């Protein structure tokens, strides 16, 4: 190669390198150390997009702090943003904001506005990680956001009444948001989703909230995997959504007359697999929900394990385990077109002459007494009495009131567990 | 020793005793006779408190019985039909009654024991030894009668109330029992005995109570009745009375 | 005092020799052991044992009790001819009937549960044992009453079985019918009160409140659960059970004290 070409090549390389270097320098942004005595809003204003603010330990008073450009807020241990009961604490109004390691508290209760510790509207690429949210009205409020990640946060509040409490993590019209490994308690609803799409709710623990541990509606194609919901006032209620996937969650200890492990209302074409329902008044309540696949779940020590209302159709219930429930399956009316197969019913005493592991006769899990109780709830006091047992036995032999089609055609002889 | 005043008892529609007043004098053998259904067993059971009379009074040594169970320390009873709890053995039932009476005696130390300070037993005539371990369930009627007699004598009570004691006993046992009664009579024991075997009663009894249809038809000495009817034998005397009644 | 002991010694020994008594204990021990083997869960076994006990303990107490007491006429006749007061004989008989039954049942139920260490909730087991023992005492008392008041043995046994049918099955059926008839009225309180008037239902509800019944019954259940967990509630329940023993026993005593033997 000639010398001129070589020099030219080298110049181009150097230019490109300088260009890249300058870009990197520019994307790197500056790093600010902030102390509690500093004026945080002023620091934010003075910063540029891409900067990192490192807040040192201490309490930073002030509400409604606006983040208008892409910033990374990091908190040292003990760095607290305290809204003092005013309005919101942190308001994110730019894409690409990251909040990590901060404690946010003091979003004030209001009957007119949904004051949140962290409010983000219409932003992308928000990251909220490892923060602690204490005693806020709403914890994290995302509206019209996409691509956010809410991970590893702890949200706790001390709500006393539903009317004066807000939700822990509240998503409205959001999409592609990851909510994972958070712990929420003491709010009105632990996780509230409305008009969501492709949301992923993974590995969270939502407990002891006043109303629902999880409450979503109109949110299609969302995934709920590996979460734990317990001790919430009314359990979990999900409605008006399609293509929902609920897997490997644990719904337990939701006791109370209007408390459900999971209440499904108008949920269709969805999958409920591998979950555990333990010690709930009602484990799974299915209302007007069609084409559900409910499989490999375990219902243990619930009052009513599965309440399948007659307005739900074409459900498939397979490979579930029912153990130690007061009522295994309850329904209303005589209609049913859902299929039951290969479930294990601990009450079932069948025989298996061909030794294929499945009982030779179909099993009807609905107790006529559960029907009676739907009609006359005071009659529940007769539970486990001899009269009721006889009534059930008679009905099993000659069904008059319970739907004949609601039967498990191949009930398992032994519990798979 | 026992005074019965106007005892009346009705079982449903049947009036078993219609105002019976009798005496059981101390130190004598009194015979209680009458046809079936005349109220003999009922009267005896009233003395013991097994049957509650509808009205009337029973006095022991002048004092009313009053339903006080301790009064029964004065009485030893041999029932007409020996019914004993099946599961017990002879030895167990003897022990049971003995313990129960002993406990009562501890509460009532002035109750008489007859004979003085000696345990009473019929072992001489009805040996109990081999029977002690046997369950009452499998015993014959005669054997049970013997157990009954043993129980009555072991009570050590000054008054024996014997309801048809020789019924069901074989002739040998029967005569042994009569001999024993004669011995006791000689020692001054008070006995009230009912029986259908009137010839036996003639030998044993001095005082006679004749019940007919729930009422006292005759009460007094046995000799008196014989004189009254002009019959030397009690059986005939009674037969004569029954015929007169039927007529 | 030693009279009652003497009599007790014999009536208790008599009761403990009974095949029915042993059969009852053995049946429950076997049932409990089998349940634990098949299911493994102490709580579940307890609930099944509860159902079995509620059905069987009253039935066995009634039928065995009535039959035993008709048999005992001989013993009674023997004892009443002795210087023993009637109330001593009465108590001795009642104890000899009810205590072996209660004991055999309690041991039969407790043994497999305790031996396998499957008991997760000792208070629930205690409640179950109290319930069963109370039922044995109550229905023995009813059997006593029947056998003293009814002369004819067959009629008496029939009455005993009839009262079991009434209390174990008929009562609940009646409650159910009433709740349908009066469906327009708020019924939870009255229905509960009716059930508490039946000793079998009372025993059942007390045990079940510890399990699932309280939460399933809505507001009334919550109230009742709190009530029966508090000292006042337990005292009242205990009082109700005591009354159920005392009343039939009192009636039995009335019949016994006046009876001719």
Provide a descriptive summary of the structure in words.
The complex is a heterotrimer of chains A (417), B (247) and C (261). In chain A, strands 1-2-5-8-11-14-17-20-23-26-29-32-35-38 form a 14-stranded parallel β-sheet, covered by helices on one side. A 13-stranded parallel β-sheet of chain A has the order 3-6-9-12-15-18-21-24-27-30-33-36-39, with no helix packed on it. A 12-stranded parallel β-sheet of chain A has the order 4-7-10-13-16-19-22-25-28-31-34-37. The model of chain A has no long low-confidence stretch (mean pLDDT 90). Chain A has one domain: Single-stranded right-handed beta-helix, Pectin lyase-like (Pectate Lyase C-like), CATH 2.160.20. Chain A is mainly β and 417 residues long. The longest helix of chain A is centred in the first third of the chain and has 26 residues, at 3-28. Chain A contains 4 helices and 39 strands. With 247 residues, chain B is of the alpha/beta class. Chain B has a single domain, classed as Rossmann fold. Chain B is built from 7 helices and 10 strands. Chain B has helices at residues 40-48, 90-107, 141-154, 171-186, 198-204, 222-229, 234-246, and strands at 2-11, 14-24, 29-33, 55-60, 63-64, 75-78, 159-163, 190-194, 207-212, 215-221. Chain B has a 6-stranded mixed β-sheet with strand order 6-7-8-3-9-10, with helices on both faces. The longest helix of chain B has 18 residues, at 90-107. Chain B is globular. The mean pLDDT of chain B is 85. By secondary structure, chain C is mainly α. Chain C has one domain. Chain C is 85% helix and 0% strand. Chain C contains 12 helices and no strands. The longest helix of chain C is centred in the N-terminal third of the chain and has 30 residues, at 42-71. The radius of gyration of chain C is 20 Å and the shape is globular. At the A-C interface, helix 4 of A face helix 3, helix 7, helix 8, helix 9 and helix 10 of C.
């Amino acid at each position: 190669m000639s010398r001129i070409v070589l020099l030219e090549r080298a110049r181009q390389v150097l230019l490109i390198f300088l260009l890249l270097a300058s870009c990197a320098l520019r994307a790197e942004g500056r790093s600010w150390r902030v102390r509690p005595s500093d004026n945080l809003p002023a620091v934010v204003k003075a910063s540029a997009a891409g900067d990192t603010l490192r807040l040192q330990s201490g309490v930073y008073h002030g509400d409604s702090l606006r983040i208008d450009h892409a910033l990374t807020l990091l908190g040292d241990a003990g760095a607290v943003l305290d809204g003092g009961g005013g309005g919101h604490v942190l308001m994110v109004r730019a894409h690409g904001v990251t909040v990590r390691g901060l404690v946010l508290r003091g979003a004030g209760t209001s009957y007119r506005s949904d004051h949140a510790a962290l409010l983000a509207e219409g932003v992308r690429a928000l990251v909220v990680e490892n923060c602690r949210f204490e005693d806020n009205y709403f914890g994290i409020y995302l509206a019209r956001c996409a691509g956010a990640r809410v991970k590893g946060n702890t949200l706790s509040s001390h709500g006393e009444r539903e009317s004066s409490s807000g939700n822990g993590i509240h998503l409205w019209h959001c999409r592609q948001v990851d909510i994972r490994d958070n712990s929420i308690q003491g709010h009105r609803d632990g996780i509230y989703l409305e008009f969501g799409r492709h949301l992923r709710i993974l590995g969270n623990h939502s407990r002891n909230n006043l109303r629902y541990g999880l409450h979503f509606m109109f949110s299609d194609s969302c995934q709920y995997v590996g979460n734990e919901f317990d001790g919430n006032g009314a359990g979990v209620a999900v409605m008006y959504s399609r293509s929902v996937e609920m897997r490997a969650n644990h719904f337990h200890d939701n006791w109370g007359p209007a408390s459900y492990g999971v209440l499904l209302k108008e949920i269709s074409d969805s999958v409920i697999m591998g979950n555990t329902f333990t010690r709930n008044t009602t484990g799974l309540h299915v209302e007007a929900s069609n084409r559900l696949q409910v499989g490999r779940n375990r219902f243990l020590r619930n009052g009513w394990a599965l309440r399948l209302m007659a307005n739900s159709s074409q459900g498939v219930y397979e490979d579930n385990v029912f153990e130690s429930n007061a009522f295994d399956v309850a329904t209303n009316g005589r209609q049913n077109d859902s299929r039951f197969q290969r479930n294990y019913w601990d009450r079932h005493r069948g025989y298996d002459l061909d030794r294929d592991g499945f009982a030779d006769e179909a099993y009807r899990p609905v107790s006529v007494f559960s029907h009676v109780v739907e009609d006359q709830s005071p009659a529940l006091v007769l539970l486990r009495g001899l009269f009721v047992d006889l009534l059930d036995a008679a009905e099993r032999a000659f069904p008059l009131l319970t739907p004949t089609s609601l039967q498990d055609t191949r009930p398992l002889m032994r519990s798979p567990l | 020793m026992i005074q019965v005043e106007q005892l009346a008892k009705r079982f449903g529609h049947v009036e078993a005793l219609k105002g019976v007043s009798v005496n059981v004098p101390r130190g004598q053998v009194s015979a209680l006779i009458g046809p079936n259904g005349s109220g003999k067993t009922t009267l005896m059971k009233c003395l013991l408190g097994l049957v509650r009379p509808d009205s009337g009074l029973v006095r022991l040594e002048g004092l009313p019985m009053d339903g006080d169970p301790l009064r029964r320390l004065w009485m030893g009873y041999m029932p007409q039909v020996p019914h004993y709890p099946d599961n017990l053995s002879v030895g167990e039932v003897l022990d049971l009654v003995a313990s129960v009476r002993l406990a009562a005696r501890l509460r009532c130390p002035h109750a008489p024991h007859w004979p003085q300070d000696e345990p009473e037993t019929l072992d001489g005539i009805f040996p109990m030894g081999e029977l002690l371990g046997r369950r009452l369930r499998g015993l014959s009627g005669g054997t049970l009668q013997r157990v009954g007699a043993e129980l009555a004598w072991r009570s050590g009570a000054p008054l024996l109330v014997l309801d048809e004691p020789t019924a069901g006993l074989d002739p040998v046992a029967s005569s042994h029992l009569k001999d024993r009664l004669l011995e006791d009579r000689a020692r001054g024991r008070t006995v009230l005995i009912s029986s259908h075997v009137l010839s036996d009663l003639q030998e044993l009894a001095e005082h006679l109570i004749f019940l007919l249809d729930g009422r006292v038809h005759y009460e007094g000495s046995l000799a008196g009745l014989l004189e009254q009817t002009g019959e030397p034998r009690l059986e005939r005397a009674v037969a004569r009375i029954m015929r007169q009644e039927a007529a | 005092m030693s009279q009652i002991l003497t009599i007790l010694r014999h009536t208790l020994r008599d009761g403990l020799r009974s095949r029915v008594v042993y059969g009852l204990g053995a049946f429950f021990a076997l049932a409990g052991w089998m349940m634990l083997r098949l299911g493994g869960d102490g709580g579940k076994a307890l609930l099944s044992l509860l159902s079995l006990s509620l059905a069987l303990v009253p039935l066995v107490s009634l039928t065995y009790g009535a039959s035993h007491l008709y048999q005992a006429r001989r013993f009674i006749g023997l004892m009443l001819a002795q210087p023993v007061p009637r109330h001593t004989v009465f108590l001795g008989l009642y104890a000899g009937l009810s205590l072996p039954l209660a004991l055999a049942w309690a041991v039969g139920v407790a043994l497999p549960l305790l031996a396998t260490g499957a008991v997760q909730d000792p208070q629930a087991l205690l409640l179950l044992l109290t319930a069963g023992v109370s039922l044995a005492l109550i229905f023995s008392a009813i059997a006593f009453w029947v056998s003293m008041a009814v002369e004819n043995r067959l009629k008496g046994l029939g009455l005993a079985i009839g009262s079991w049918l009434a209390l174990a099955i008929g009562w609940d059926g009646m409650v159910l019918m009433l709740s349908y008839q009066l469906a327009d009225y708020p019924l939870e309180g009255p229905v509960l009160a009716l059930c508490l008037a039946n000793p079998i239902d009372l025993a059942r509800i007390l045990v079940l409140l510890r399990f699932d019944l309280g939460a399933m019954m809505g507001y009334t259940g919550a109230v009742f659960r709190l009530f029966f967990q508090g000292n006042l509630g337990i005292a009242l329940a205990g009082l109700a059970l005591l009354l159920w023993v005392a009343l039939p026993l009192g009636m039995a005593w009335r019949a016994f004290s006046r009876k001719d033997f």
